């Protein structure tokens, strides 16, 4: 393979600084001043063996003439390439190889890039280890005068050579790869990153993507899907059953928000951080591995085997030059990508503290070994962890269930809790899907879009920069004020705090939704989808309380509140003309539930009102009502089922010892609990006989033991 043209593929782990390389040199004799013929430099500084002047006997005192027309320099960079994890042989560790890039090949690859290098393997001597002065003097002493004379005579016969200057010893060689071209392994050679400084919006560095006409047409066809958000979510980890809300959060994380800079050049991050807390065997690691393998720059690591230096950066000494260099960690390797950390709860506290700056400021500051630098870590963090004790305790708040400090918890935009619940329908569906995957492989799951089309759509939408509209700003402010008010009135402050970071999270999620719909502006309908996802995320955190009103399906909100936007200017003008003919409605005139019942599409809000107040009761109170209702229906049996009014009347008789004000509150609670049980599918309302009205039944697959946890 040495000297043959081939290609290698791997991940860049470290790059050196670009240095000048002497390719051809002309030397001047220090004794007589005669200039030598051009001398090639074969990977080693090589001087002419003797002066050209026959009368001059100089053989060692020469000086390079850098300004001579025939002296040529070139750019040179050393790149360390690590073997791709998918190509590692069984029982082996990832191998590394040093790449030598020249001229146009320098500064093409960055740490974390997956590249394909075309060139040829070469063998170079370990010159750096052989140039020690003490060792050279020792070798020269061991040589006799006759041997030195023979060596000088042989040098005159063989011409210019650099390796002869090392003396007589056993040379050690190493394999390198001389790269002629370096390309992106993901096939996206048209992608380029530029720093765009916009004085109007202070946009930070953004990524621009060029698409061919065929690819652009494919993206437009995907954008015209009837239920785009649901279709894209189904493409996220299609082998995992359900967890649609978690998949939607991961989809928005892969797209990300819009990074900005303030007038003081302070960066505002646009990347979205997500944390998944779940019981064992709830597919947390599968989510992380899928995301790491489907983003352009994804790094997967385990928390127990990761240290602070391994996550951020470390200072090492270069073997050739002896200079101290910075070696990138996992967060730097996933710059402009996603860093997936599994077993986040197994990390030491001092190692968790090391990622504080990277999660919020998106930088890594290092000051050690005489090096003081601030490095970029513009990455999204996806963490997965198990609760304390291996099982999530519903009776305790989130902070009592996870081994995580409050500062890190507040830096996550979305947190999901996945509880392993026993359900006949869910267990059967999971078993059926797993068996079909074992039997048919990838053919068992057919997502709406192929993996290549899905990645193309994400790569294009990541480059978009939607702007917030005034109506969306008012809606976000109203929702944030309502969340702050409920945080001060309810018991949720013991679980999490609604801070300014939550407001920025809503903005980032809204921008990500607008990107998915290829919209130039962040519309109120996009904000509503982000708010519903945020409410779903927050509702899973506090299982000591149950929210009875206000939890909607973000996919229903998206399908009803977002219209298919035009793909060209003519369609955009027609859409605007149609919107002018339809009277607009404010967000305060009708709630999202009423809009679903009326079957109308959400329109742009001119003056949105604050969101409606939610009804929240304690989990003990909620499960107490549920257990009484279930016990009543089980005692009556299917032969004598009650109606909803009869069931409510019976319950109010059971609590008739309460005072008047408490009875009014309890009446509202029992109606909302029955409504929630109907929505969750725990109860069924069926008309048995015509004219007798609808009767209440327990779902046959309902497990009443779940409510007692």
What structural keywords apply?
nucleus; Methane Monooxygenase Hydroxylase, Chain G, domain 1; MCM_dom; ATP-binding; cell cycle; 709 residues; alpha+beta; OB fold (Dihydrolipoamide Acetyltransferase, E2P); five-stranded mixed β-barrel; five-stranded parallel sheet; 3 domains
Task: Walk me through the topology.
Blueprint: E1 6-15, E2 19-25, E3 27-29, E4 39-40, E5 62-64, E6 72-83, E7 96-102, E8 114-125, H1 127-130, H2 133-142, H3 145-158, E9 173-184, E10 192-194, E11 206-208, H4 213-223, H5 228-234, H6 244-255, E12 260-261, E13 267-268, E14 274-278, H7 284-294, E15 298-302, H8 308-311, E16 313-317, E17 324-328, H9 330-333, E18 338-342, H10 349-353, H11 356-360, E19 363-368, E20 371-376, E21 380-385, H12 398-401, H13 406-410, E22 414-418, H14 424-440, H15 451-461, E23 467-468, H16 470-489, H17 500-516, E24 521-522, H18 524-541, E25 545-547, H19 554-561, H20 569-581, H21 592-598, E26 616-618, H22 619-636, H23 644-654, H24 660-680, E27 683-687, E28 694-698
Parallel strand pairs: 7-9, 14-21, 14-22, 15-18, 18-21, 23-24
Antiparallel strand pairs: 1-6, 1-8, 2-4, 2-6, 3-5, 6-7, 8-9, 10-11, 12-13, 16-17, 19-20, 25-26, 27-28
Helix pairs in contact: 4-15, 5-6, 16-18, 17-18, 18-19, 23-24
Description:
This protein starts with 5 loop residues before the first strand and ends in an 11-residue tail after the last strand. Helix content is 36%, strand content 21%. It is elongated. The chain has 709 residues and is of the alpha+beta class. The protein folds into three domains: 6-184, Beta Barrel (OB fold (Dihydrolipoamide Acetyltransferase, E2P)); 192-297 and 379-541, Rossmann fold (3-Layer(aba) Sandwich); 616-708, Methane Monooxygenase Hydroxylase, Chain G, domain 1, CATH 1.20.58. Helix 4 crosses helix 15, helix 5 crosses helix 6 (244-255) and helix 16 (470-489) runs parallel beside helix 18. The protein contains 24 helices and 28 strands.
């Amino acid at each position: 393979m040495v000297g043959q043209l081939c290609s290698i593929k791997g991940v860049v782990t470290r790059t050196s600084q670009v240095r000048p390389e002497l390719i051809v040199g002309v030397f001047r004799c220090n004794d007589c001043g005669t200039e030598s013929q051009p001398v090639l430099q074969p990977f080693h500084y090589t001087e002419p063996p003797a002066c050209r002047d026959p009368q001059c006997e100089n053989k060692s005192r020469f000086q390079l003439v850098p300004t001579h027309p025939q002296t040529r320099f070139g750019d040179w960079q050393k790149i360390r390439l690590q073997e791709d994890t998918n190509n590692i042989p069984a029982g082996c560790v990832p191998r590394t190889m040093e790449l030598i890039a020249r001229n146009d090949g320098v500064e093409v690859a960055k740490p974390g890039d997956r590249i394909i290098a075309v060139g040829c393997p070469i063998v170079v001597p370990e010159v750096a280890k052989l140039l020690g002065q003490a060792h050279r003097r020792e070798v020269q002493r061991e040589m006799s005068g006759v041997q030195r004379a023979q060596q000088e005579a042989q040098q005159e016969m063989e011409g210019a050579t650099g390796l002869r200057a090392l003396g007589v010893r056993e040379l050690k060689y190493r394999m390198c790869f001389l790269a002629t071209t370096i390309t992106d392994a993901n096939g996206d050679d048209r992608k380029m990153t530029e720093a765009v400084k916009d004085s109007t919006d202070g946009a930070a560095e953004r990524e621009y993507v060029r698409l061919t006409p065929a690819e652009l047409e494919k993206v437009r066809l995907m954008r015209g899907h009837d239920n785009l958000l649901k279709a894209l979510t189904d493409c996220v980890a299609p082998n995992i059953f359900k967890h649609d809300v978690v998949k939607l959060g991961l989809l928005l994380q892969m797209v990300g928000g819009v990074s900005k800079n303030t007038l003081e050049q302070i960066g505002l991050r646009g990347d979205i951080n997500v944390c998944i807390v779940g019981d064992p065997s709830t597919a947390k690691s599968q989510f992380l591995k899928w995301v790491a393998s489907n983003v352009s720059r994804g790094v997967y690591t385990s928390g127990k085997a990761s240290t602070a230096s391994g996550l951020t950066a470390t200072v090492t000494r270069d073997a050739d030059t002896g200079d101290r260099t910075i070696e990138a960690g996992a967060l730097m390797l996933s710059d402009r990508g996603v860093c997936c950390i599994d077993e986040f709860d197994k990390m030491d506290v001092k190692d968790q503290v090391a990622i504080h700056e990277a999660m919020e400021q998106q930088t890594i500051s290092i000051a050690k070994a005489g090096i003081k630098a601030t490095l970029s870590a513009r990455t999204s963090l996806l963490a997965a962890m198990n609760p304390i004790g291996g099982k999530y305790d519903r009776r305790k708040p989130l902070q009592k269930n996870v081994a995580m400090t409050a500062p890190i918890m507040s830096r996550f935009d979305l947190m999901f809790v996945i509880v392993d619940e026993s359900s006949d329908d869910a267990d059967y569906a999971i078993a059926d899907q797993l068996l079909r995957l074992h039997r048919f492989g990838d053919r068992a799951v057919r997502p709406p879009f192929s993996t290549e089309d899905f990645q193309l759509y994400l790569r294009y939408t990541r480059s978009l920069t939607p702007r917030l509209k005034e109506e969306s700003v008012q809606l976000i402010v109203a929702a944030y004020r309502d969340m702050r008010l409920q945080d001060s009135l309810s018991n949720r402050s013991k679980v999490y705090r609604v801070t300014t970071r939550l407001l920025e999270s809503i903005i980032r999620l809204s921008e990500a939704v607008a990107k998915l719909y290829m919209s130039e502006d962040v519309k109120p309908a996009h904000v509503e989808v982000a708010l519903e996802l945020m409410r779903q995320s927050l509702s899973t955190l506090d299982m000591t309380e149950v929210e009875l009103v206000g939890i909607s399906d973000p996919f229903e909100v998206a399908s009803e509140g977002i219209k298919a936007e035009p793909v060209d200017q003519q369609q955009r003008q027609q859409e605007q003309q149609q919107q002018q003919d339809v009277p607009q409605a404010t967000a305060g005139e009708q709630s999202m539930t009423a809009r679903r019942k009326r079957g109308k599409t959400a329109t742009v809000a001119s003056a949105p009102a604050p969101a409606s107040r939610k009804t929240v009761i304690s989990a003990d109170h909620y499960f107490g009502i549920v257990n009484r209702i279930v016990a009543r229906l089980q005692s009556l049996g299917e032969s004598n089922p009650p109606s909803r009014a009869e069931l409510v009347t019976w319950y109010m008789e059971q609590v008739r010892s309460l005072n008047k004000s408490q009875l009014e509150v309890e009446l509202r609670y029992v109606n909302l609990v029955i409504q929630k049980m109907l929505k969750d599918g725990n109860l069924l309302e069926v008309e048995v006989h015509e004219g007798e009205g609808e009767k209440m039944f327990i779902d046959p697959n309902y497990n009443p033991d779940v409510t007692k946890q």
